[in-house]
Design goal:
227 residues, alpha+beta, six-stranded antiparallel beta sheet, 6 strands
Length: 227
């Protein structure tokens, strides 16, 4: 009988991701270089409960004196998120994004793993600059979220559920065609004086070189957020 973990490993092998299996665990560890920074990631399987989970971690922890504003950021970011959620550890300031699926009674398909992983990485990659502003530029949670979401105006991370007139619908269709080059995440970091732009965390990553070597392709889809 094929296990969920073996299916997860098959996916990573097929997609040519570099990873390592944690000894004695049904967990894989890997790295992802997005347009905003480098993420430490884990894929975890619970064979008994038939759960598959992905976690991506912010590379810096929130200082203790900013846990309150970070918690507000997490709440604002999570509101309306359709796939996954941010988590903040109040013990050490760790921030991570989680996506998960329960496949009990069904079958895990490679496309399901792909969607789960891409929703995770694209979301953490998108909110990364806002978290950096909050930590290093003393920006408020509301301002940091607005720098990412643009006051919740239509964006690749939101969908419309109410009836729209034709002009609004055409605008939405145009947004669906945006690729990652249109999302200038680096420009969001302008004005951060207390953060060294030479550090790897906010370097513009050449996704055609280093990422190709690590097998980490940029996500082609965005997580969705309800209005």
């Amino acid at each position: 009988m094929t296990t969920l973990f073996s299916e997860l490993i098959d996916f990573f092998e097929e997609e040519k991701w570099k990873y390592e299996i944690l000894e004695g665990e049904t967990i894989v560890r890997f790295h992802y270089k997005g347009t905003a920074g480098r993420l430490l990631c884990y894929g975890e399987v619970d064979e008994n409960k038939q759960w598959v989970l992905f976690y991506s971690y912010l590379p810096v922890n929130v200082p203790m004196d900013k846990l309150g504003v970070a918690a507000e950021f997490v709440c604002r970011a999570n509101q309306g998120m359709r796939i996954g959620n941010f988590e903040l550890d109040f013990e050490d300031g760790e921030v991570r994004y989680k996506t998960s699926i329960d496949v009990e009674g069904g079958e895990l398909a490679p496309k399901m793993i792909d969607n789960l992983l891409r929703a995770n990485l694209s979301t953490m990659n998108r909110y990364f600059p806002g978290l950096m502003k909050l930590i290093f530029a003393n920006m408020s949670a509301k301002e940091a979220i607005e720098s990412v979401e643009g006051n919740r105006l239509p964006s690749p991370n939101m969908i419309q559920t109410s009836t729209q007139d034709q002009d609004e619908q055409n605008d939405d269709d145009d947004l669906d065609d945006l690729d990652e080059d249109d999302l200038d995440l680096d420009s969001d970091l302008d004005g951060i004086d207390d953060f060294d732009e030479d550090e790897e965390l906010i370097d513009k990553i050449d996704l055609t070189s280093d990422d190709a070597e690590e097998g980490n392709d940029p996500p082609e889809s965005e997580n969705e957020k309800k209005p």
